[in-house]
Design brief:
The chain has about 650 residues and is mainly beta. The chain starts with 7 loop residues before the first helix and ends with a strand.
Length: about 650
Amino acid sequence: MKPLALFAALFSACALFAASPPSAGDLPKRLLEKNPEFVPFSADPEPYAGKLPPEPSGCADFEIELPKSSGSAVAAADFGFLPDNPDCAAALNRALAHCRKIGASRLELAPGTYRCFVSDGVEMDSLRDLLVDGKGATLVFRRTDGKPNFSIKNCLRVKIRDLKIDWDWETDPLGAFVRVVGKHADKNADSYIDVEFVGFARYPLYGKPMPVKVMTLMDENCEGISNERGSAYFGTGDGHYGTKSEWLSPNRARIYPGVAPVGLPRPEDYPSEYSKKKNFWISGRALVGRTYRIMHQYYGKNAFEISDSRHLTFENIDVYSCRGMGFLVKGGTSHWQALNVSFVPRGGRPCSTTADVVHCTSNGGVAKLVGLRATLNQDDIFNFHDKAAFGKFDSPDAFKFLNMGGARYIDAAPGDEVEIFNADYTPANFRAKILSVDGNVARLDSPFGGGADGKGYILQKASHRTRNILIKDCVFKNHAGRGIMQSSDATIENCRFENGISIPLRFQRAFSIRNWAEGYGCRNVVVRGCEFSDAKINSGLYGVYHEIFAGSRRTDGAGGFDKSATASDILIEKCRFKNMLAMSLYSNFAKNVTFRDNKIEVSDSPAAKSYAGCALFENSENVAFVNNAVCARNPEAIGAFICDTQNAVVAGNSAKKAKE
């Protein structure tokens, strides 16, 4: 028998299947070969009231300091912030410099639409106790430089309110809905897809080189993304053109998936984006007559980029669209909040953000999202983490970065205190300071005890620990990416996750040897009173499709992680799951995970996995799935799979037949 310890209450409530249950049909082969235990649910079980894993507290509420009102008010119009000025970002920068000089407490905009087309974005640097009152103004951005719309750094007690932000779609659209009008798939020649731009007689980019970075099938009414075919990616970085395309007419183009554009910048870091196999496969799978979303842009620019600031408030802000991320928060930033901020496109446009909605990395955390709304974004709805890097020691005091991006990926710099972990994320019990960075080699102030042993290690900055995250009363709808928590002390409460195509919530520590590494691990998290509906999961982890994940994620598939260092002390309770197609919970290399008092309605769609509504505990310890109520067409197939796990409690769960 596998190393498994079930509490006595479990045995009195349930019987273990001797053979594979009907829900096991879609489990990956690697898991079936381990012959996992299966604990079925019953129609009318006795509620479980026994011992559970330690209960986490999550993130307590906290206050963000508001600006202290002591100075004068400044009118942005006095500095050229006017509707007929094409360079209103420069006007705002002049007004902000004046506010900083005189110690003003308020910068007032005026209603209207203002173009920010010429200069760099708005620079908010070293401001103290300032309220930027937008008064409903709409700022429309368009730039070719790499700077964000708003760059906020070294600020203290600053608030931005009542503002609207958009991009110039008339000249530089971020993406488009297109209808596939033809295709040609040929293993011996370049395959292609012919598309027509929906709603355009002449597309704004006609006659110009057109970036195509992502192509995604939409559902029939174009309100959400379909999971029928997945997305085709052709590189996500800024400044390149993705895959080859050519114009056929003012509103028609031919796209060559996986073919490098000729004479244009291409994503050199992603050579796998170009291949004959990819070209043939994507072209052949295209559905003629259906509508797709193509994205011209992905990373870069960003609406708000924040660093080394404290006590910031963003309130009543509508971001109709932005190039890049909505919020990119980094550096020494802590204590910030977004209140009633929305990322919702207008006018039938295909996207809000072209990348993550909220991306918070390597900082002090203490962040609050309340009443935030996001739809039709590209990539994650939120990702809170701390960057790390994979490498080896050239000598005991010289660490060589081997991941893509090298030392630049974590902004390694002299003076940084770093911590070394083994490849399974167990501590190597070594800290040092960086003396110098030469290319992708960091020289340390003390020698590593392991020396240049040829093994791979993970280096992480010890100076930043993103933690204390409160997400409340938010709505994420028709979203393309995931909600990822790779930090500690978090509460997600009374939120709605609707009609997304990816895993709604991941609590994890993740890295890949080549591309990226994120997270000091996820600990002390509470998810309470949330609703998850119509999740169209288009991919899984380790071959398992699921709605909530707790544990480790390593893209090369390696395991053997330290459980307490990946995900631990996580509680999901009193939530509702509607039209579930996948596992409710997947725990892999996690510890102290409890899923209790939740209601689950399993979808009767043919797309539902055989294990839809079930739970899976793998390589975990001290876990519980108790007092949950499941409605399904085949209630006899509902239960929990347990594999290589210690101290699992599965009891008090009901499975009843759904009403016809």
